[in-house]
Write a structure and sequence with these properties.
Blueprint (H helix, E strand, L loop, with lengths): L3 E4 L20 E5 L2 H5 L5 H20 L4 E4 L10 H11 L4 E5 L4 H8 L8 E4 L8 H8 L7 H12 L3 E2 L2 E2 L30 H14 L15 H19 L19 H6 L4 H13 L5 H25 L15 E2 L1 H4 L5 H13 L4 H14 L4 H11 L5 H12 L16 H7 L20 H12 L1 H4 L6 H9 L2 H17 L2 E2 L1 H5 L1 H13 L3
Parallel strand pairs: 1-2, 1-4, 2-3, 4-5
Antiparallel strand pairs: 6-7, 8-9
Length: 531
């Protein structure tokens, strides 16, 4: 009989995980807290606490099922503090003849594990079937296509799964209701309170541990409210379905100065570590539409995020790595502004997005794309620096989902593989979709002058700098026409305004310097496999 060590990673906390099915007698399930995975970027303390608390609760649930479990805690004296050496130590300790593991969420780990397949103690890698698609299926869909657009992939997913379909046609006669989902917030709007979870002794012990070992990282533990058990995650799903889904669609692009969550589900972290499955979440949302409790535009928009976007970015990641990680089509080279770590900026929209991220390890997708992302794009922040920040600060950030979103969607650094144009915007967009500007010293209607919103001059300066690359893009023809009609005097004033702002913008590489060893070890996995 084989005697495997089944390594369960922190984003694989799913009871019917492929590697945990039909375990032979003598199998050992191993969960390992290791310092290397918590420090190669300065992960938000809430993110680390979420993963570790969920891992410890999951280990308890495996033991209740009669599975033999070894749990390597972060402060165990014999813990080797790196995933592969620690797993191999445990396999030898228990006399195991192989190590089984489901595909991890990072290409770096996947390659390191594949390199051990023929080792004396072999690693056996198993495909992750918790998603709607596999990397191989996505590669087959992408083969021969000049552009890998989400919309075409999403329609095929709908047909294949039958979600929101009426026979061969989409429910309601349209595939996409995005046009109905762009309403700004009204002056007064009651937003339901988010669910709060009690902290049992296991969770409290983790919070104490994280404060001790990772307390210097960006972010506060005070507002920790993440689900760390499947029961809690199901409670969050129920709360979203009952209280938020009906209004999710029309307000999903809106931004509030005071409400960090609005009608967003905040289920992505539970999905990404395995406490919820995408199928049960999509089917729960579809049921609300079928039974008349939620409008189609809300349900379709939500399902598109999971069935469409989540599967799409994962397919891009696994079929384009490792070259994808090096993408920099716009040649951005600047360091991250200091304010991304301090929150100290006069731009109200940016400051509030960073403060909410610090307090909650969360910002919704428009804050990420059109506030922190847009500002970084306009300031030529390097893809490496911004990707590291997003990976560090958000509780739901795994590299397979973070990297394509930031590098491709936010920064257009993949040259248009994902998006047909950059998502750049001036202060007018923020003014239209949020209430930030009324609290800000800058005027979104002014382009130059002391009170002018910096986003306005940065926007036109960005377009001018990248005209050679972007002006031939059909989707940007109108905006470049507007730029061409500006007088040279006005363009010079804009260049001067933006140039002075960028020259005075404090930037830092401090955490890169402090964590140089951990980061270099992390990136070595990419360099070794890169021609």
């Amino acid at each position: 009989m084989p005697r495997p060590l089944v390594l369960v990673l922190g984003d694989q906390l799913t009871p019917d995980l492929a590697s945990l099915r039909d375990l032979p007698e003598g199998a050992v399930a191993a969960l390992c807290e290791v310092a290397a995975e918590g420090s190669y970027v300065p992960h938000h303390p809430q993110k680390i606490a979420l993963v570790l608390a969920a891992m410890r609760h999951f280990a308890q649930s495996l033991r209740k099922r009669g599975i033999r479990v070894h749990y390597s805690a972060l402060d165990d004296p014999d813990n080797l503090q790196a995933l592969i050496p620690e797993a191999e130590r445990l396999a030898l300790l228990y006399g195991c003849d192989e190590i089984r593991v489901v595909r991890p969420g990072e290409w770096r780990l996947w390659q390191a594990m594949k390199a051990r397949e023929a080792a004396p103690l072999p690693w056996r890698l198993i495909e992750d079937d918790r998603f709607y698609t596999t990397p191989e299926a996505f590669a087959a869909w992408a083969d021969g296509r000049k552009a890998l657009r989400l919309e075409y992939f999403y329609r095929e997913q709908r047909r294949r799964t039958g979600l929101l379909m009426e026979g061969d046609e989409p429910a309601g006669g349209r595939w996409n209701y995005d046009h109905d989902n762009r309403e700004p917030l009204p002056a007064t709007l009651a937003v339901p309170e988010p669910p709060r979870h009690g902290r049992d002794p296991t969770t409290q012990a983790v919070l104490t541990l994280v404060a001790e070992h990772f307390g210097e990282h960006f972010g506060s533990l005070a507002g920790f409210h993440w689900p760390v058990t499947r029961r809690q995650a199901l409670g969050d799903l129920r709360h979203f379905i009952d209280h938020l889904l009906p209004d999710f669609g029309r307000y999903q692009d809106a931004i509030s100065d005071s409400e960090p969550f609005l009608f967003h589900s905040r289920l992505s972290a539970a999905l990404n570590i395995g406490l919820l499955s995408p199928r049960e979440v999509c089917e729960a949302a579809e049921r609300e539409y079928r039974e008349g409790r939620a409008p189609l535009n809300a349900v379709e928009g939500f399902i598109r995020q999971i069935l469409g976007w989540r599967e799409y970015v994962r397919g891009l990641y696994w079929t384009r790595m490792p070259a994808y990680k090096r993408g920099n089509a716009l040649g951005a080279r600047q360091a991250l502004p200091d304010c991304y770590w301090s929150g100290e900026t006069e731009l109200r929209c940016l400051g509030r997005a960073i403060e909410m991220t610090r307090d909650n390890a969360y910002a919704h997708h428009i804050q990420r794309l059109m506030v922190t992302g847009n500002f970084a794009l306009l300031c030529d922040v390097s893809p490496e620096a911004l990707c590291d920040w997003y990976l560090a600060v958000y509780a739901d950030a795994c590299e397979w989902v973070e990297l394509p979103n930031v590098l491709g969607m936010v920064l257009h650094a993949d040259g248009g593989l994902m998006g047909s144009k950059p998502y750049c915007a001036s202060g007018k967009y923020i003014d239209r979709m949020s209430d930030h500007c009324r609290h800000c010293r800058f005027d979104p209607k002014k382009v130059t002058g002391d009170r002018a919103c910096p986003l306005n001059s940065l926007y036109w300066h960005f377009l001018e700098r990248h005209a050679e690359t972007l002006s031939t893009n059909p989707r940007m023809k109108l905006i470049y026409g507007s730029l061409a009609r500006m007088s040279e005097e006005k363009r010079a004033a804009i260049r001067d305004q933006a140039g002075r702002f960028l020259a005075d913008l404090p930037r830092t590489t401090a955490w890169h310097d402090e964590a140089e060893g951990a980061r270099d070890a992390h990136l070595a996995g990419y360099r070794e496999e890169t021609p």
